[in-house]
Amino acid sequence: MTDSLLELTGAIAAHLSQAHEPEAAVQAALGKLLQSTRHARRQAFSASSHGYTELVARAAELGRHSGVAGIAAHLLPVRDSLPWQYHYPHAPDDDLSTRIAFAELIGPDGPLQAPDCRVGFTVMAEGTTYPMHCHPALELYLVIAGNARWQTATSDRIVPPGQFVLHRSNEPHAMRTFDEPLLAVWGWSGEIDAPAVYI
Q1: Would you say 193 and 118 are in contact if contact means Cβ atoms under 8 Å apart?
Q2: E strand or H helix that includes residue 16
Q3: Architecture of 2-198 per CATH?
């Protein structure tokens, strides 16, 4: 199974190495994310799907028809080998633990280790709002499946598969899905051990 996880990491690295982003800050974050995928090494971990199997499968299957199909195809066979969970103790309005999940692939809590980073996946069910939140880590997303609305104080846009979204340190941001699930790769750099919090 570890070889399959390394193949998934290789698929992410292959896509990132072909990306051309004009914004300097996105390019810098992209470089850190790519370096993390190339230096990932095996480590012991505990996998747990926590009931997210069907949601992840639907989102990954949708992603197989996008410009990042290689990542989605490599995720499908190993989706239950990742530590899917919902981190927040509570949400501002309702319980999101059945509709949003995160899985670290590379980092201190994932099956693969790389220094000073976290790389993983976010999945969100249809018609779900991930409320405004922030974290000290710099965050770069690559959308794999789903056209979702991404908001910050200075930006409000629909982001399709294959596009990147950068959130700077402590920048409040939120996402909303429509009639299809969202699947995205995320990478954290900088202060990666401080948790995200709703604001």
Answers
A1: no
A2: helix 2-17
A3: Sandwich (2.60)
